Amino acid sequence: MSGLIGEDALVQILRESLDPLAFSVIQKFLKHSSCESKSLAIRVPNVFYKELLEKNISNDLVQKLANFGVNNISFVVDETVAVIDRRNLDQQAVISKDADNISRDVGKVPIDPLKSFPTFIVGGSNRLAFLASQYFIDGSENVFCLYGTSSSGKSHLVHAIGNESISKTKKTYYLPSEQFITEYINSIKQKKMNSFRSNLTDSDVLLFDDFDLLTVRQSFIDEFSHLINHYILYKKKIVIATQKHPSSYNIDSRLKSRLCSGLVVKVMPPSHDLKKACVRIELSNSGITFDESVVEKLSDYFSGIGELFAGVRKVIIFSKLMGKYIDLDLIKEVLQLEIIEICPEIETFIKTISEAYNISPDQIRNRNRKTSYYRQLLYYLLVKCSGFSTREAAKHCNISNSTVSYAIKKIEFESRMNMSFQKELSLLIEKVNTQERKE
User: Fold this and answer.
1) Could you read off the pLDDT of 113-158 as tens digits, one per residue?
2) Domain boundaries, the chain
3) How far apart are CA 69 and CA 55, in angstroms?
4) Does domain 272-335 have CATH number 1.10.10.10?
């Protein structure tokens, strides 16, 4: 940067005048700035960053710049400027200067400072959810339900809302449903229910992830009803992430009405173009050269955003460790893209489940909602007993990775919560292993 104001002075003015999140973002782009003819111009990669920074320009900042002879500050979109690498964001940037005493967590479950609005990659499939998440922070609604399949980006948006709320000095808690259930059960055992409820209601914004797990017990749903009633009554905000639209759950009609009364938005599965954009950004940020065939293969291979980033990072790591250029052969080697054509394990597991629960194998194979529980058992056994990865099990069963992941999560959770089912599952696994040895 050159011109009327020195870089150190500019950084100090921006630090004093902007909220920490905006300062963290703008600081990354200062190397793309110029200051000439009494005007400061900063180049940014897309419209989102332009709008984010423009809305943070205050009269105080304008006045301080004017003292140095700078009468105008503008943000210019330049697609050659790299998007901020989520891993390089200052982890403390999203904590407000005036929010030292505002907690990020309940029960040591932190809000991820790297999952913010600037690091969320927006495409046609998630644009509505992204805009709704930004709107909700200052909107009039008290309840915000984000629903969609696993690995679609719901959790990133939940954390982004949390980080933005903290930057606005709002007391914010992040609470996964498993943590809620654990604390709820412990509070009953220790006779500390008042403390449990006080802890969860003593916030301006509550972020509740994986609502689906509460539906396994009525007592969990009842307690959550009290919680959401409090947030609505006192006009505070609660964000709920879930797999399905709240109207589709078999829960109390009053709770269903409250969930649906607020802002309900679906996070659509990522489009192919969005997945390709994610791959390009991750590869570019790593400094590795690549061609379009690599982008196409990786975006085809993964169905969800979360697993896409994890898979691409795995390829990058192995590329560096092995000293190899990323091409289709390396991707195949690292991710084991070979499809096993014959899978006798599936028939073995179907036979075992069929005999254990006295239902026909066809009932398990047919995708009927009434028999979904038995298919979830099948997916669980395939991963836990056969050594298949989630992806391999999904391919063999011709379903999505998120369906397998959800099944495993649900079976494991039910096993922890229900000793009777835990014994039943152990017996089933023993039968599967016995059957495999016979064959």
Assistant:
1) 889 999 898 988 899 999 999 999 999 999 999 999 877 889 999 9
2) 7-83, 88-266, 272-335, 344-438
3) 22
4) no
Chain centre distance of CA 331:
25
What is the reported pTM?
Answer: 0.60
The two three-digit tokens of residue 68, written as one number = 């140095």
Domain 344-438 has what CATH class?
mainly alpha
Q: Which tokens hold the place of 233?
A: 């009554």
- For residue 172, the cross-strand partners are 205
Beta carbons within 10 angstroms of residue 288's beta carbon: 15
Tell which CATH architecture fits domain 7-83.
2-Layer Sandwich (3.30)
Q: CATH classification of 88-266 is 3.40.50.300, yes or no?
A: yes
Q: CA triplet 174, 188, 214: central angle to 5 degrees?
A: 50
Distance CA 66, CA 84 (A): 29
Computed from CA positions of residues 413, 418, 422, 428, in that sequence, does the dihedral angle turn out positive or negative?
negative
Quick: pLDDT tens for 148-188. 987 788 999 999 999 999 998 899 999 998 889 989 999 99
